[in-house]
Design brief:
467 residues; alpha+beta; Acid-sensing ion channels like fold; 2 domains; 17 helices
Length: 467
């Protein structure tokens, strides 16, 4: 009779232990089941347990101490007070920073640029007398010029204002280059009469230097590196209603309409006038941090606030009066305003009217302006005697008409004022992250942990989904 080894599968007890049923029972007892009953007896945590587990793992200092059951209730309440106080401060700080960011704040940075050369501005020079009395007499139109005396109320009876060609009137009776060209012109110690041109302004036909052609540059400070002119007012050509003798001058950026009545400087005859200037550049921000714009204009190639206001005045004058000022852009099929129109429409181009009609003319995003300081003194007797000997003209003529004008840079450095964004989105996030770390020892990723927890609990409670 053969003997069966106890560990053999043929041994009765071992055989029964490894039958299919017993293996299954053993797996169930030990929790090995991989079938449908795998999670049948798994314990589902409560919401409280989930929250305690979250508090123990979230990256917020103090949360572990609040839910730690080993601590006494008083100690846990103290930690809760710390966390709530820190959270309240954090909420206030976030509200303050976000509110500041939404204000779109801007700051100003001042820079000084030192250059070897610098552009010379455009200079517009207007005789304070608008019409040449000799030409008015020659053209038998002296009586029409009296309508431009705005100090009195003219009598238009017997005059058909629309019957006259007012464009021709301005051309025929205003100054020409021969009338207003300086007797002497020097720029950078070189002759400059060929660099002069004429321009129409509200003061009539005026002289302009560096208004067209190659832009003139300066490589030094002082009179020798600037512009020198000898101007003659020729008061014997003045009409009776011209109040001030001499010239009105304006330094401005090329392409900008000269607003002499608003910004011009008066210079008087019989004097030597020094105009020292310094260039400033301004860079503004567009909305939302600033209010600048660079929109295109219909009548001017370059956007500036003054050009925009001038264009607004053109449109408003045409709309309200059916005419245009003689110095405004030539608009097809629109006549030049006659003296009666000028009186009725004068308020159209006032500063108050510009604001009232909301022209939307804000500063350009980049602009250049010039600050000036003026000094003047009487022309010397010796100098005038020299002029008398050279041109055989009485000294009294030069005393009443001659102006020696010097315009130069006192400093060729450029002061640039730059408007820039004061509080960017990156700075906002850095402030938020800094406050989180300082108060609660957290980071911006803590927000992701909170969102993840809230979303997971919501899906579990509302839809029974465990994620």
């Amino acid at each position: 009779m053969s003997v069966v080894h106890p560990f053999s599968l043929d041994y009765p007890e071992t055989k029964s232990a490894f039958n299919k049923q017993s293996i299954g029972d053993t797996q169930k007892e030990q929790g090995w089941t991989n079938g449908p009953d795998k999670h049948k007896d798994e314990v589902v945590p409560t919401l409280k347990e989930e929250m305690v587990d979250f508090a123990n793992n979230v990256s917020i200092l103090g949360m572990k101490q609040i839910v730690n059951t080993k601590y006494s209730p008083v100690r846990r309440l103290i930690w809760l007070a710390f966390v709530l106080t820190g959270s309240a401060f954090l909420v206030f700080h976030l509200w303050n920073r976000i509110a500041y960011y939404l204000e779109n704040p801007a700051s100003v940075d001042v820079r000084f640029n030192y250059n070897d050369t610098i552009p010379f501005p455009t200079l517009t020079i207007c005789n304070n007398n608008r019409f040449n009395v000799a030409k008015l007499s020659q053209n038998s139109q002296y009586n029409l010029a009296s309508f431009f005396d705005f100090a009195v109320t003219p009598n238009f009876t017997g005059y058909d204002m629309d019957a006259y060609n007012w464009t021709a009137f301005y051309i025929d009776n205003q100054y020409t280059m021969v009338d207003i060209a300086p007797s002497y012109c020097s720029f950078n110690s070189e002759p400059c009469l060929s660099n002069l041109s004429l321009v129409e302004t509200e003061m009539g036909t005026c002289l302009q230097f560096n208004g067209e052609g190659e832009l003139k540059m300066v490589d030094g400070e002082g009179i020798l590196h600037g512009l020198t002119m000898y101007l003659l007012a020729n008061q014997y050509q003045y009409v009776p209603f011209t109040v001030t003798a001499g010239f009105t001058i304006l330094l401005h950026d090329r392409g900008e309409v000269p607003q002499l009545s608003r910004l011009g400087l008066q210079i008087a005859p019989g004097e030597s006038v020094n105009v020292a200037m310094k260039q400033f550049k301004v860079s503004n921000l567009p909305p939302p941090h600033g209010q600048c714009q660079d929109k295109s204009l219909k009548y001017f190639p370059k956007y500036t606030k003054l050009n925009c206001e001038a264009e607004c005045g053109i449109n408003r004058t045409i709309e309200k009066c059916g005419c245009r000022m003689h110095h405004f852009a030539d608009v097809s099929d629109v006549r030049v305003c006659n003296p009666r129109d000028l009186r009725e429409c004068d308020a159209v181009n006032s500063t108050a009217e510009i604001k009232a009609r909301n022209c939307g003319c804000t500063e350009a995003c980049r602009r250049t302006h010039y600050e000036t300081s003026i000094s003047h003194s009487k022309l010397s007797v010796l100098f005038m005697n020299t002029m008398v000997a050279q041109y055989n003209v009485p000294a009294s003529f030069y005393a009443e008409n001659l102006i020696a004008l010097n315009i130069f840079y006192s400093d060729i450095s450029v002061e640039e004022v730059v408007q820039q964004e004061a509080y960017s989105a990156l700075t906002l996030f850095a402030d938020i992250g800094g406050a989180l770390g300082l108060v609660l020892g957290s980071t911006l990723m803590t927000a992701a942990e909170i969102v993840d927890f809230v979303l997971g609990v919501s899906l579990w409670k509302l839809f029974g989904l465990k994620v």
